[in-house]
Design brief:
alpha+beta; about 40% helix
Length: about 300
């Protein structure tokens, strides 16, 4: 009985400890969830460009076409500058014409047919009257037939090379043109029609604010709650300036949470990408940015 009582008492204590452990764990989970903010407000936020590019030619030459003036809108993959390409065009057209000529293939096939016919006639003659055509002559005719077959392969190979040469010349012709990689505005013009350009030398600059990035800072504590792809809301921090749309809210995503913590200023840099189709956010202006950590409640009033 004493052993039974001791066992019962020990089991009761163990069960009590287990229940207390579960309750404590649940409390910690709740506290952790409660400690996660619904919104993290970044500070010292600035709007910056993402899409800005200085365009250059892939080869040296003379600018033949007019470059767009500063402020001109350009479309993605459209030609914005071109070098003199007369010789390159002529070479391309010549090689294109050669690639479409299949006379050598048709001649090789006809030569093979003739060679096989001669060999067949000679062999048939020997079947009727042995020795009509000497064996040496038969061997020679057989060699001619094999040679004709190989000439067909050679003609096919030369045709493939001709087609590849056309592709090569077309790609070379493209290097005389400078294309805009994305739609935007010409912000700077470095060289104009008639001027000589070197390979890689700047011709013009194109920028786009259809999307922008907002860089700001959060506290070290808040940085542990912010993750890549967290939703953000951004609006202009215009202060007393009378700027249109300064109350408009745009939605984007966190792209970078800096892995380096600045203990001196007690902050971590975060970067968000914001679609900006109406060009409300202008690079150089300050902004307000609210970040919703993953799993937090939805921020109301987002403009998508």
């Amino acid at each position: 009985m004493k052993h039974l009582a001791a066992w019962t008492f020990g089991s009761t204590i163990a069960a009590t400890v287990a229940v207390m452990s579960v309750v404590a764990t649940s409390n910690h989970a709740v506290e952790a969830q409660q400690g996660k903010p619904d919104v993290v407000n970044a500070y010292d936020c600035t709007i910056q460009l993402i899409d800005v590019v200085t365009l250059a030619a892939e080869r040296p030459g003379i600018l033949e076409s007019d470059t767009p003036e500063e402020g001109t809108e350009v479309q993605a993959n459209h030609v914005v500058a071109g070098l003199k390409d007369g010789v390159a065009k002529a070479t391309y057209e010549k090689e294109l014409e050669k690639s479409q000529n299949d006379v050598h293939i048709r001649f090789a096939k006809k030569s093979y047919e003739v060679a096989m016919a001669q060999l067949a006639r000679s062999e048939k003659a020997n079947e009727s009257v042995p020795g009509t055509v000497p064996n040496a002559e038969i061997d020679k005719l057989r060699l001619e037939a094999e040679k004709a077959a190989l000439q067909i392969e050679q003609a096919d190979f030369e045709q493939k090379i001709a087609v590849l040469t056309v592709t090569e010349n077309l790609e070379a012709l493209k290097t005389y043109q400078v294309l805009a990689p994305f739609g935007g505005i010409v912000s700077k013009v470095y060289q104009r029609k008639g001027e000589a350009v070197q390979q890689g030398a700047p011709i013009l600059e194109v920028v786009s604010i259809d999307r922008v990035k907002v860089e700001g800072y959060v506290t070290i504590t808040d940085s542990f709650h912010v993750k890549t792809d967290d939703t953000v809301q951004v609006q202009l921090d215009a202060g007393d300036l009378d700027i249109p749309f300064k109350n408009e809210i745009l939605t984007g995503k966190i792209k970078i949470v800096d892995t380096t913590i600045s203990t001196i200023i007690g902050s971590v840099k975060v970067t968000a990408e914001i679609p900006n189709p109406d060009h409300i956010l202008r690079p150089g202006l300050k902004a307000k940015m609210a970040i919703r950590p993953s799993g937090a409640k939805t921020i109301a009033g987002a403009r998508r």
